[in-house]
Design a protein that fits this description.
Subcellular location (chains A, B): Cytoplasm
CATH architecture of the largest domain in chain A: 3-Layer(aba) Sandwich
GO molecular function (chains A, B): 6-phosphofructokinase activity; diphosphate-fructose-6-phosphate 1-phosphotransferase activity; metal ion binding
Pathway (chains A, B): Carbohydrate degradation; glycolysis; D-glyceraldehyde 3-phosphate and glycerone phosphate from D-glucose: step 3/4
Structural class of chain A: alpha/beta
CATH topology of the largest domain in chain A: Rossmann fold
Helix content of chain A: 25-40%
Oligomer: homodimer
Number of helices of chain A: 14
Order of helices and strands of chain A: EHEHEHHEHEHEHEHEHHEHHEEHH
Largest sheet of chain A: 7 strands, mixed
Pfam family, one (chains A, B): PFK
Strand order of the largest sheet of chain A: 3-2-1-4-5-10-11
Strand content of chain A: 15-25%
Cofactor (chains A, B): Mg(2+)
Radius of gyration of chain A: 22 Å
CATH class of the largest domain in chain A: Alpha Beta
Number of strands of chain A: 11
Distance between the termini of chain A: 67 Å
């Protein structure tokens, strides 16, 4: 029976999110010949406004070029539909004659689908296809988009550490991550021993104090003559408030529809740079804000990430007849396996780093943590240890 | 006749600076068999302190692995020798029995060599081998290290522009560059038309006002629904002072031995982010500081840059018998050519972007400017134009 598939993208883009669109579109053509395949522009906003790209007849060549383009090529949104908005989305899906709505996104996207699913009849199935560079979805071993962003971060810290061997000082790279420190911790994936940077990692899972940071940096400089630090922009003080929040003037606070404060590594970075200069006068100290660079960078897209994201789109379509649900990428018996789980098993939940990934002090990876990143990333490039 | 070559690296690292060391070392072995090849640690500091890595017997495999390692693997320095320091360096060279001192660096490095050359006898030749991601050396068409850094910047802006097509807003990426805007302008190398970002570039060559920036951004947002900006951290106000200087509290000003103020994109970035939020309330606005990321990033090393940097090391050794001088990489009759020029032709001078690279408003590349970057960089990756 021919069907109508509506596909959309929500939340922050990744380097491989279009692979999932392509995987879903190609599977729909193969499994359900004669189906119509509509890509909604800007997520649920496009569905509510009948704003579609017709992917039905797009050549496979063009679809694969689209797949290899980083960042959400259908457009994205952070809209969180209320009851009235939900009605407009459901009406839109009915006008399109949708049999399945495949929405690619993180836990906010899964939450939106759970709400839509509860309000709709049984004639439409709602399928959540995971993606997020934050790697923070429960039920998933790792999420599409994470590997590529992690590869950028690992490359960046390997390079910066070589830079700070050449001319010594203190470097802090601030990496995206609101609640989960996976992306920041990926900075340490290619360390070989204590002398390699990053020498310290600070993640949202561990309460942060500036006093401790300064003490850690001083000790590292004493020992290695330099200190390279990877820090999540979402590091939190003991009261569970983002450190950045206390540094941003209140009248500039900006929240999205999901209530998330828009963090900016810049504010955090500047405050840290001033603190280091005052605490360690005369020491070369630099803070860079990676910001959006890791999430869609063309130069470091992981081939495995590409393939997995494509496979998830295919799996979403292949399992769309059985009912609504979320595609989960799990790791069972030494291999990556896909399965469907209920939408609300993923919605509005956040996976943080397991406690055994971090040492008791919270600023280094354990062997268990390292092993996880080694499994996901390619081996450290064959760089000669420099002579300094 | 066997000789002693002393090789050192000065100033900021690049992704390919070790290629020049390897090229020089291999040429010395081939052309002057039995020669001793010493790599000084941390530039002139290592020479003054007899701190050397003996490269004479290093296997070609290890030397090429070292060549492919980004950032100054011998260590670097920003020391600017005064008379007493010069004497210590010259004494060090004499102790080592040096017949030639090959110093890889920018115009400050060339200046140091000119001073040493004037103070030394004729028994040592001083050869400057160029490198700088700033691309600001006179007598050179482009400098080793620039292509790789430019490739990072072009990739970053292509990716970020796709990101801001997906979710609209204003993005400013702040790129290193104190006096010359080449690296910032490389952001526009892969633009195809007006709708592609970066929509605006701001470089130190053109007087900057925040009022003009805000007007330019508003116009671009009105026209394209988004605005992606590439800005040099060294942008200057009409009085030729770096904008960042007025934003950094005076007591935190930090200058190196060459009198250069240590700029930090972070201060500039934060000020701009606040300004945009106040001027365009409700608009998604993000500022990222690229900082050190472009200069040694492993994921975007240019193959041509590798080869040219290696060739420059080789040329430096091959021409070391004729006297002191600076290797210049020129573009003659459609091809890159190396020649020796006097040290003080390069020392303490800065090449900025030619006036015909920029439109009269100063915030776009002309066809002439674009052609230059097209000649240096690989073609734009085959990315599908997204559907938004």
């Amino acid at each position: 029976m021919s069907k109508v598939f509506v596909i959309a993208q929500g939340g922050g883009p990744t380097a491989v999110i279009n692979q999932t669109v392509a995987g879903a579109a190609l599977a729909a053509r193969e499994r359900f010949p004669g189906s119509k395949i509509l890509g909604a522009r800007h997520g649920v906003r496009g569905v509510a406004g009948d704003d579609y790209v017709d992917l039905t007849g797009l050549s496979e060549t063009d679809l694969m070029r689209f797949a290899n383009t980083p960042n959400s090529g259908l457009g994205s949104t952070r809209d969180k539909p209320d009851d009235a908005y939900c009605k407009r989305v459901l009406d839109g899906l009915d006008r399109a004659g949708a049999s399945a709505f495949i929405y690619i996104g993180g836990n906010d996207t899964s939450g939106t689908l759970a709400v839509l699913d509860a309000a709709a009849g049984d004639h439409i199935h709602f399928i959540h296809a995971p993606k997020t560079i934050d790697n923070d979805l429960v039920e998933n071993d790792h999420t599409p988009g994470f590997m590529s962003a992690a590869l950028f971060v690992a490359n960046a810290f390997l390079s910066v550490d070589l830079d700070f061997r050449a001319m010594r000082g203190v470097y802090i790279g601030i990496v995206m991550g609101r609640h989960a420190g996976f992306l920041t911790a990926a900075a340490a994936a290619w360390r070989r021993d204590d002398s390699d940077g990053p020498h310290l990692i600070y993640v949202p899972e561990v309460p942060f104090t500036e006093t401790q940071l300064m003490e850690d940096i001083r000790k590292t400089v004493d020992r290695h003559g330099r200190c390279v630090v990877a820090m999540s922009e979402g590091v939190q003080t003991a009261d569970h408030k983002p450190l950045a929040e206390s540094l941003i003037p209140a009248h500039l606070h900006e929240r999205d529809d999901h209530g998330n404060l828009q963090l900016s590594g810049g504010d955090l970075g500047l405050a840290l740079q001033v603190a280091i200069k005052e605490d360690l006068p005369g020491v070369r100290a630099r803070v860079d804000t990676f910001g959006y660079l890791p999430r869609g960078f063309l130069g470091t897209v992981s081939e495995t990430d590409r393939q997995e994201s494509f496979a998830i789109g295919r799996f979403a379509v292949e399992n769309s007849e059985a009912g609504s649900g979320s595609v989960a990428q799990q790791f069972v018996d030494g291999r990556v396996t896909l399965k469907m789980v209920p939408l609300d098993a993923v919605a509005a939940k956040t996976k943080t780093m397991p406690a055994d990934f971090l040492t008791p002090a919270g600023n280094h990876l354990t062997e268990t943590g390292l092993a996880y990143f080694h499994r996901l990333l390619p081996p450290r490039p064959d760089a000669w240890t420099p002579f300094v």
